[in-house]
Structure formats: structure tokens, C-alpha cells
Amino acid sequence: MSDYLTADELADLVGCKPNQRTLMARWLDDAGWRWIPDRNGLPKVARAYHDSKMGLANGTKKHDPTPNFNAFVDRNRGGASL
Question: Which residues pair with 74 in a beta bridge?
Fold first, then answer.
């Protein structure tokens, strides 16, 4: 597997055809993604960067699986509101 997204993967992300390089570049810029063009003008996005932006990187958690019971504390009364 390549370190960069393929044209098909990038097109799937952007919602266009794999040969629409200008549309891909515009979408990536508008969405704030970092990319570089290859010598054919195809935007290159690192697979690790993609995974990080999409919340798929190893070792990262999008949400904590344990509940936050402190969210139920009534700070005005100094105790739990349960």
C-alpha cells in the first residue's frame, strides 16, 4: 500500500472523478487539508494525514468510552444533581 492516497481514493473523498485534479485541489484547499501536487498535477495526500483527519489514526480516540460523571455535578450546590 502506498504512503499516499490513490487518485480513486482521493476522488471518493472529494466526490469527483479521478481525473478532476483541479476540483480535488480546490476541495482540499477549501477543507484546509495539506497536500502537494505531483508532476502530473494530481494532489498527493499522505495516507497517515488522511487517517488522522478522519479520526482513524492508530492510538487516537475520537471519544472517551467511559462516561463523564462530573458533567452531572451541580457546581452551585457543591454536590451531584442525581
Answer: 79
Using CB atoms within 10 Å of the CB of residue 47, give its burial: 0 to 12 exposed, 13 to 18 middle, 19+ buried: middle
CA-based nearest residue to 35, from 10, 60, 2: 10
Q: Give residue 81's identity as a one-letter amino acid code.
A: S
CB neighbours of 60 closer than 8 A, spacing ≥ 6? Answer: 52
Amino acid at 56: L
pLDDT greater at residue 44 or residue 82 = 44
Per residue in 38-70, pLDDT (tens digit) is: 999 999 999 999 999 998 876 555 566 777 777
d(CA 80, CA 69) in angstroms, rounded, equals 9
Nearest in space to 43 (alpha carbons), one of 12, 17, 4, 16 = 4
